[in-house]
Amino acid sequence: MTLFQKHVGIPALAAVTVAAVFMALDGSFGPPPLVLPFRYGAVVVHVPWLLTLLLVGAGATLLAKRAGASFSERVLVALRETLNKPVSSR
Q: Global pTM?
């Protein structure tokens, strides 16, 4: 295992897994999402899940810090959730 995998890969993988679990829980037990209609479609916003992403990113950053990650690696781990979100379109 390389240092990059230890510093960034494992905390980012843990964050993605926890965020997916929270998204499933929000979809099953959470309030209905906020739907913002626009002229050519709509944007669906899961507010509780977005708020949990703050905690998930903070927890992943803490894991990266405990693994010995540098400041830039910790920033990369913290922003991992927002950098690669797929946008579905019809």
A: 0.80
